[in-house]
Amino acid sequence: LILSLMDDGYSVLNLDLNDSVDLKVNLKNYSFIKVDFTQVEGLESKILGIVEPLECLSGLVCLAAHNQTIKIEGTTQEEIAFSKLPLGEWEKTFTVNVTATMLLNRIAAERMKLQGFGSIVNIASIFALFAPDQRRYGSSGLNSNAAYGASKASVIQLSRFLSSYYQKTGIRINAISPGGIERNQPTDFIENYIIDSSDWKSK
Questions:
Q1: Tens place of pLDDT for every residue, the chain, 203 residues?
Q2: How far is CA 98 from CA 60, 63, 127, 155, 172, in A?
Q3: At what angle do helices 146-165 and 87-94 cross, to 10 degrees?
Q4: What is the C-alpha to C-alpha distance for residues 174 and 191, in angstroms, rounded to an integer?
Q5: Are 179 and 126 in contact (CB under 8 A)?
Q6: Of 91, 114, 113, which is closest to residue 39 (Cα–Cα)?
């Protein structure tokens, strides 16, 4: 996504915990600032300090996401998905996926309102719309937990609210819910995911 934006002539400022762009690429219109979205205290002022000096803020693509696979001895991944999901993991997921997203949207939208234009795209998930079938995961250990889907559903509703709130300001605010992204998962996991995807399409 970053490289595509750069190819289209945009200057990209990437806020993340780790730099995801290959340093071999041409970086004349790219910069990276390390931000830990799990740490809410001071986050808004830090982002404001980054955004305020910019000459223009044309758009925000908000990919803030936490969906970490955790392990607890003597506990299955299906149990960790909800019945034994640690409260701390639930809170961390909502901090990154919802609170950080809200702060980024608020800062960006207020800046764009002054400009009279801008576009915000929030990345939700297919699991904001459909529940993952825990039976499909088998022994992969890649089970998606309840916090992830619930938090991404919040992103969709937040985007709806903001789209109404900032109407007539020249700002477009949308959310998209992509399906799974292939990242060298086990073959049986991918095959089961495809079966689930077919079920979702029929609903």
A1: 888 888 888 999 999 998 877 655 667 788 899 999 999 899 999 999 999 999 999 999 999 899 888 888 889 888 889 999 999 999 999 999 999 999 999 999 999 999 999 999 999 999 999 888 887 777 777 888 999 999 999 999 999 999 999 999 999 999 999 987 777 777 777 777 776 666 665 55
A2: 15, 11, 15, 6, 19
A3: 30
A4: 31
A5: yes
A6: 91
Contact 41, 21 (CB under 8 A): no
Angstrom distances, CA of residue 127 to CA of 63, 106, 132, 160, 174: 15, 24, 7, 17, 17
Positive or negative torsion for Cα 194, 196, 198, 201: negative
Q: What kind and span of H or E run contains 78? A: helix 77-80
Are residues 38 and 50 in contact, defined by beta-carbon separation less than 8 angstroms?
Answer: no
